Fold this sequence. Notes:
13 helices; elongated; single chain
Amino acid sequence: MQWLALDLQFFSGEKTEKATPKKRQDTRKKGQVSKSQDVNTAVLLFFMFIVFIIIGPFWKERFTGLYQQIFTEYMLWELTPDHLRIIFIDIITYMGFTIAPVMGIAIIAGLVSNLMQIGFLFTTEPLQMKLDKLNPISGAKKIFSIRAIVELVKSILKITVVATVTFSILWMNKDEMMMLAHGNLDGALSFFGSTVTLMGISASLALLVLSVIDYMYQRFDYEKNIRMSKQDIKDEYKNIEGDPLIKSKIKERQRQMAMRRMMSEIPNADVVITNPTHYAVAIKYDESKADAPYVVAKGVDYVAFKIRDIAKNNKVAIVENRPLARALYAEVEIGQAINESFYQAVAEVLAYVYQIEQKA
């Protein structure tokens, strides 16, 4: 039996269950999500080279204009600190406006690729300083882990694919490349620009295919890492819902307090309608609190006995009416006014009680 108990304890601690929504939410708040950096890289490269195609003529004019300005205007200036400062500011501003479209597209592509994978997420948890990150033993374990080997294989595969794609494009255009020596400068710039752009787009598409595979692996690894054991799920349920034993004790305490409040209202009742032994309902009529008589206490069996006992000790009238007692107990809650269907029957009982009190 001990071996069986140990086996059950071992299997209950094995992480075989899918993560609960709360566990996923907690890990997301910590910045742990299924994300592939290769998707960001591939999307970024693809859009960057698309932008190169669109703004190629613009860049050609900008760079040739800067070249002409340097050698026709700035070269004639006297080299003084003030002139150097002006030249430096002009060149930086000129280059800033030149590369601004590319930087804007790069930022947008990065945001879009992240939103596609994980949606909007803002957390500072990964930026917090943790001493365990400085542990050389845990660092060595990460270096020689299965994940590190997978990352190494991915890097080799990416280098191989990119090199194969770029070399294939260069090999297909080798004849035209050899003839550039007999052409002009504009032809050479156009050839190299189109060739580099073609290599970039082809490489980015190849990386995009690899990034999809990598994203699937990252998602699988993420799901595996956030798995929970049966005991983890039970503990989480206890933390959310509360310990069942504690909840039962709280409910029992609340029931006792409600019972004491109910019993304390019986001495103020006008009449207690009984079954006569199984049911007891205490009725009170107070015009300042309700337009109709209302129930201050009710109970069956032992509670009904306690209600009758308190009523006797406090000289509250007790009237036997079996159908009325049963109906009031079933349909009217404590503190609630009686329904119109009970008006006549309860009024007759109260009138009978008032008559007896007047005679007394």
